Amino acid sequence: MGSNPTGPAHLYNSTFVCCRRDERLIREKSCQPYRMTSENDQIEASTSSFDKMRFIVTRRRWFHILDRHVELRDMMEVVLSTASVPDEVFIDQRGTLHLVKSLQGTVSDFLVVIARKRNSKTYLVTAYYINSKRKERRYRKFKKLTLS
After folding, report:
1. Reduced to 3 states, what is the DSSP secondary structure of residue 56?
2. 84-105 b/e with 16+ CB inside 10 Å = b?
3. Burial of 65 (0-12, 13-18, 19+ CB in 10 A)
4. CA atoms within 13 A on the CB side of 24
5. Please, which residues have CB within 8 angstroms of residue 102's CB and are 6 or more apart in sequence?
6. Quick check: helix, strand or coil at residue 138?
7. Would you state the pLDDT for residue 139?
8. CB-based burial of residue 140 (10 Å sphere; 0-12 exposed, 13-18 middle, 19+ buried)?
9. Phi–psi pair at 44, nearest 5 degrees
10. Cα–Cα distance, 77 to 83 (Å, whole number)
């Protein structure tokens, strides 16, 4: 990298990416853009989603969850259940679905499953736990869908 690079400079290594922002280098975890799941990705699991579309968990996205959110290691059935019967559904500005399920007796209050629709299918992007205070703060400005 030169002494004065123009625009965002990316130096990739195994875990971290360095990005130039506001004329200072910030070392952060992989800021590579999300690659939309393709039809050729291996399917790890699938179910019918809350809107009767096919909900697909690809091997690539499940490994992402296992890498970033180790506490969800044995929670595939709960993730699929959240996709099928969520307690709440929010849509962000990009049209991404945030499926929220209330949990009891686990690490946190809620499980969030984030998914994107493509053609006639819904694909898992990620999943993570969230507490009630953070959920209220995060989803304050999102559009909430009414479930029938």
Report:
1. strand
2. eebebbbeeeeeebbbbbebee
3. buried
4. 4
5. 87, 109, 110
6. helix
7. 92
8. exposed
9. -85, -40
10. 10
Per the DSSP assignment, residues forming a β-bridge with 11 are 18
Burial of residue 3 (number of CB atoms within 10 Å: 0-12, 13-18, 19+): exposed
- Strand (E) positions, the chain? 11-12, 16-21, 24-29, 43-48, 54-58, 88-91, 97-102, 110-118, 121-130, 143-145
pTM, rounded to two decimals: 0.71
The Cα–Cα gap between 2 and 139 comes to 41
Q: Chunked in runs of 10, what are the mean pLDDT values of the chain (148 residues)?
A: 41 35 38 50 88 92 91 91 94 93 84 92 93 92 87
Helix (H, G, I), strand (E, B) or coil at 82: helix
